[in-house]
């Protein structure tokens, strides 16, 4: 079917995000009793069907009467490009599709209000994806995305004009969207863009490792982000699955490789240089949702500004540290101020934001 595109804004965004399906996050603080009732590993991200999503949302209403459910545009890529736009003043855009429903309108409004170019989003007849993000007392999040019936952009809908003039393409690994991802990367490379890949989740790496490794070994990924769990899955069964070994593997195929280590900070490699940077901010997260996504925002900002590898990691740690101070993957204005203060204290460039 022919998808409806929003009117284009002048000038190409510096950073483009590919998120096949728009997504609304339903974020709620929960106790262990509710988590025990939900199938699947705690702390992971397991897709659910629409009836399962509705059941969880219904359970939440009876559990969290004191704290309202927070609804916001979500998805790893959306979090990263929104963070770059709002927190760092970088021109960003997003490629994807949203449904002709209330959730779709909320996604478009939230991203547009955040300064992200929405002209590459296609409106389609159908529903918009949703995800339940359950946050426990330790700030760890358990995700249950429902995308099975959500409208998506297809590989044959991408065109050269979507990418022309941009410098970076931000992608999240998803085996079901592999054809779309490969097409986007091919066009991006033809148009001279660099590609940043996030490994998504340890389940995604575990279940679709050979396809992922093929993608990484294609030589088309310039920058790769993995967290500690994803790094362990990447090399499981072959050698000691430690972050350092995963970093070494990633750096053989990508110009920049980063493994984030939660409260322990991160390790990164570019050419022969290896750095380790400690985490910045709270030792205990209010909510870890979006920490990796916002780390990527800061790291990309550092690369765009021509900072050193260590400085890129420090900026990433500051922005990753800003989002975990409140619920959800969207940084509050107060926490952006906190981040800018951290940058100042560490002698790092503070973005000139004029809202």
Automatic annotation (TrEMBL):
Family to which the UniProt record says this protein belongs: Belongs to the carbohydrate kinase PfkB family.
UniProt-recorded Gene Ontology molecular function terms: kinase activity
UniProt-recorded name of the protein: Carbohydrate kinase PfkB domain-containing protein
The entry's keywords: Kinase, Transferase
Stretches assigned to the Carbohydrate kinase PfkB domain: 65-328
InterPro entries: Carb_kinase_PfkB-like, PfkB_dom, Ribokinase-like
Protein origin, superkingdom: Eukaryota
Organism name: Arabis nemorensis
Pfam family, one: PfkB
